[in-house]
Write a structure and sequence with these properties.
The complex is a heterodimer. Chain A is mainly β. Chain A has a single domain, classed as Immunoglobulins (Immunoglobulin-like, Sandwich). Chain A is built from no helices and eleven strands. Chain A is globular, with a radius of gyration of 13 Å. Chain B is mainly beta. The radius of gyration of chain B is 14 Å and the shape is globular. In chain B, the strands form three sheets. In chain B, strands 2, 5, 6, 10, 11 and 12 form a six-stranded mixed beta sheet that branches. Chain B has a four-stranded antiparallel beta sheet with strand order 3-9-8-7, with no helix packed on it. In chain B, strands 1-4 form a two-stranded antiparallel sheet. The chains are: A mainly beta, B mainly beta. Chains A and B meet through strand 5 and strand 9 of A and strand 6 and strand 10 of B.
Chain lengths: ~120, ~120
């Protein structure tokens, strides 16, 4: 079974530029998560999708971050304009459903550096 | 809101020895799941072990075992016969069993070094 795919693996941009990350979850997984992991901290949820609907985006900075999951499969996370404090690893995860017993499978992450 | 605390930023262990990583959490819920994830330098989060709160028996997975103390809200990870490949960041995480909105809540992690 193929795992969660993410691209790019690394991205360096200047502040005020825009950037987009892509995630392809495990086939058949209805739930998709984007986490932000700042250096020295644990991952923090940004947004959660169930199929192509948003379940939770309460911690997404909506003035600069946006995310979509068209057709309930792939997802993109965009930052526009980027700030220095957005430097982090962005992890995508997927699971069969939203319920706690379902394991979340993580992708390799995208390391973003904003200069 | 639930919180997870890992009080040991760094730990080290000699190869073949045993090490215990600590985790405490705060919740008002009675049913939930607890996890330990391993994150090597490749950044891929790998599930090590999980514990259902309604189960009194501590979970074990080969060399990994937990000490789950529900009343104390404590969830420690014991790694036996440590190997060089165990070196990584270890994150303790909480997940509600009740809500349909169940993201993982992570601690800040413990960096484990294994000394040959």
């Amino acid at each position: 079974e193929a795992g969660v795919a993410q691209s790019p693996r690394y991205k360096i941009i200047e502040k005020r530029q825009s950037v987009a990350f892509w995630c392809n979850p495990i086939s058949g997984h209805a739930t998709l998560y984007w986490y932000q992991q700042i250096l020295g901290q644990g991952p923090k949820l940004l947004i959660q999708f169930q199929n192509n609907g948003v379940v939770d985006d309460s911690q997404l900075p909506k003035d600069r971050f946006s995310a979509e999951r068209l057709k309930g499969v792939d997802s993109t996370l965009k930052i526009q304009p980027a700030k220095l404090e957005d430097s982090a690893v962005y992890l995508c995860a997927s699971s069969w459903s939203v319920y706690g017993e379902d394991e979340q499978y993580f992708g390799p992450g995208t390391r973003l550096t904003v200069t | 809101a639930q919180t997870v605390t890992q009080s040991q930023p760094e730990m080290s262990v000699q190869e073949a020895e045993t090490v215990t990583l600590s985790c405490t959490y705060d919740t008002s819920e009675s049913d939930y799941y607890l996890f330990w994830y391993k994150q090597p330098p490749s950044r891929q989060m790998i599930l090590v072990i999980r514990q259902e709160a309604y189960k009194q028996q501590n979970a074990t997975e080969n060399r990994f075992s937990v000490n789950f103390q529900k009343a104390a809200k404590s969830f420690s990870l014991k790694i036996s016969d440590s190997q060089l490949g165990d070196a990584a960041m270890y994150f303790c995480a909480y997940r509600s069993a009740w809500s349909g909105n169940t993201p993982l809540v992570f601690g800040k992690g413990t960096r484990l070094s294994v000394i040959a």
